[in-house]
Amino acid sequence: MIGLDEIDKTKLSKNDHIVLDYLLKNERQLYCESSDEISKKTGISNATISRFWKKIGYTNIKDFQKHMVEKVESTPLSKIKNTLQEIKKRDEDLDGVFIKNIKTIEKTLELLDYNKIDLAADLILLHRKIYVFATDASLGIANIMEYRLRRLGIEFILISGGSSIYEYLININKEDLVIVFCYSRLLSEISIILNEKENIDFSLIIFTDILSHSLHEKCDAFIYSYRGEQAEYHSMVAPMSVVDCLIIKIAMKSEVSVRHLEKLNQLRAQYQGLIKR
């Protein structure tokens, strides 16, 4: 297999050169694009693009993308290499899932503000009373975050949706922190929380994949994750990775995290005869 910069260009047609030029200019996003997408963006037919892969030494676009994953060693893509190699029964659809998840992480890295993760860690450590609103798939991530941070002595109050939200809102005051997971769409409950933020001025962290609605202007820490295009399957890999970064940052900043973990280990050792796991 050869790299794009090693191709013998004298054997390529005019249309092949257009395809090659596109690939060279958009190398970072090639891991997830289809031949149809390249055809639409270059104006070159699918048939010509299919022949192009064979001319440069690949069976098809999937074969080319696998080679690109193996070749790149300096990006997050390198982390997936061993996993792909360990899959004994090759499944192109499964490979596609891995590749799309890589894309979500790479796009997240391009748009993520690390200073906001740092700020979110400070806010969580600063506040004693923390409310969390999460629904659907994001509830799973919120539960993992709650589980991890409980080990560091940080407890959450999970806000229920629907009319139950009012029972939580009457107890939130200026000294509290609210964490909201807002993916795909702006729910009515989140609109209410944003409105109450203006009225009460509590601290607010928003995890989201929405760049519209000016959400970054309505909270203290805006933490973005890319989950895929509107019509695609929305992966939670990038949001979970961002939350993992936040958990690690909190553990690094916390003055009592080691003490809590030591106490946890002591309790496990003390009662291991009663609960064996």
UniProtKB/TrEMBL annotation:
Keywords: DNA-binding, Transcription, Transcription regulation. GO terms for biological process: carbohydrate derivative metabolic process. GO terms for molecular function: carbohydrate derivative binding; DNA binding; DNA-binding transcription factor activity. Pfam families: HTH_6, SIS. This is Transcriptional regulator RpiR family. The lineage of its organism: Bacteria, Bacillati, Bacillota, Clostridia, Eubacteriales.
